[in-house]
Specification:
Blueprint lengths: L3 H14 L7 H31 L11 H9 L3 E9 L4 E3 L15 E11 L9 H4 L3 E7 L2 H9 L11 E4 L12 E4 L4 E8 L8 E3 L5 E3 L14 H15 L3 H19 L1
Parallel strand pairs: 4-5
Antiparallel strand pairs: 1-2, 1-7, 3-4, 3-7, 5-6, 8-9
Helix pairs in contact: 1-6, 2-3, 2-6, 6-7
């Protein structure tokens, strides 16, 4: 993680050194959240581009210099297997922390959902051959369309089993920031979904000093969730927006140029 105080003090030092002005903690926190989100969201299109290079064997596969692997490692801290709860009214599974006991689960904001894992405690009622269908366990659930779901579940030949459960999205489409409801057949005892969650909102908190100055309060602050290698990008990105706040186009141009050079260097 990147220390939020290090970033804030560095931004202030650069602005003060150039006599460019000042941004308040509230302004910094807003900019920090925006820049962290921009960097986080850039991982996905960049990763797709790097993956194509990786498949074409055009990348350096030397340890520490494989940029696809480095990009993948930046995303890995945000990958979670989150337990979904069963909504009896919707007859579907959804990530809703309000249905759990207080303090039982950490609340995350889901950015993207991936593989569905359905857990069964016992074999299905009516199965004459438990060895063929399994006697419980956790199985990858195939995601299909609602139309295919109806066809498969109605056919005796293709009916889903514990080992081969299927699901469809019962509410809308899959997209970033949207937590879907999944209908799953056969009905499992427990559902976990592999998700990418949003980073925690960074926050620089403070107390007031004897002269009314801002004194950093680490206990009530939140560091950036991004890897330490992103510290430079965070500082440059915040400086770019700081130039807008203090109405200084020079800072905007310099920061934008520096950001473009860093980005080009990362992809080269």
């Amino acid at each position: 993680m990147v220390n939020v105080n290090t970033v804030y003090t560095t931004v202030l030092q650069i602005l003060n050194k150039e006599q460019r002005g000042y941004i308040t903690p509230a302004e910094f926190n807003n900019l920090a959240q925006q820049v962290q989100l921009e960097i986080f969201e850039s991982y996905f299109p960049d990763g797709s581009q790097l993956n194509r290079q990786n498949q074409n064997n055009t990348q350096n596969d030397t340890q520490y210099f494989n940029i696809f692997k480095n990009q993948e490692e930046k995303i890995s801290p945000f990958v979670r297997d989150l337990e979904f709860s069963f909504d009896t009214e919707r007859d579907a599974w959804n990530y809703n922390v309000e249905q759990f006991e207080p303090n039982e689960f950490q609340e995350f904001v889901i950015y993207w959902t991936g593989e569905i894992l359905s857990t069964y405690n016992t074999s299905l009622v009516g199965n004459t051959n438990p060895q063929a269908f399994g006697a419980g366990g956790q199985f990858i659930t195939q995601l299909v369309t609602k139309s295919d779901f109806n066809k498969i579940t109605r056919s005796k030949l293709t009916a889903p089993t514990e080992k081969f459960p299927i699901a469809y999205v019962d509410s809308g489409i899959l997209q970033p920031g949207y937590t879907p409801f999944y209908k799953i057949s056969p009905l499992p005892n427990k559902v976990e979904v592999n998700c990418v969650v949003l980073p925690t909102t960074p926050r620089w908190s403070f107390t007031s000093g004897l002269q009314g100055q801002y004194v950093y309060s680490p206990q009530s602050s939140n560091d950036f969730d991004l890897a330490i290698s992103e510290q430079t990008n965070l500082i440059i990105g915040i400086l770019k927006y700081a130039g807008v706040i203090i109405n200084d186009p020079t800072i905007i141009d310099v920061a934008a140029q520096e950001a473009a050079e860093v980005k080009a260097n990362e992809k080269s």
